[in-house]
Design a protein that fits this description.
With 75 residues, the protein is α+β, with helices and mostly antiparallel strands. It has 3 helices and 3 strands. It starts with a strand and ends with a helix.
């Protein structure tokens, strides 16, 4: 686990998304493996963020290949 304290990272400009987005996700319990509250402070798990980004990239590539193959089949 590579935890980043949200407030410190926001002040340093090192967050991958807005601090407001992180607070909203935490409030809505959207990504519990990504955002953790420890002793009253929010932390972002950088390893989980990278895993999610890799998965999103893989899904986009897979979808693009699917669309491309269906278009070439029509021709």
């Amino acid at each position: 686990m590579d935890l980043i304290e949200v407030k410190k990272a926001a002040q340093a400009g090192e967050l991958p998304v807005s601090i407001h987005t992180i607070y909203k996700w935490h409030h809505k319990k959207r990504y519990p493996a990504l955002i953790l509250k420890i002793v009253g402070k929010l932390f972002l798990d950088n390893d989980e963020w990278l895993r999610m980004a890799d998965q999103a990239r893989d899904n986009q590539v897979k979808e693009a290949k699917r669309i491309h193959s269906s278009v070439t089949d029509m021709a």
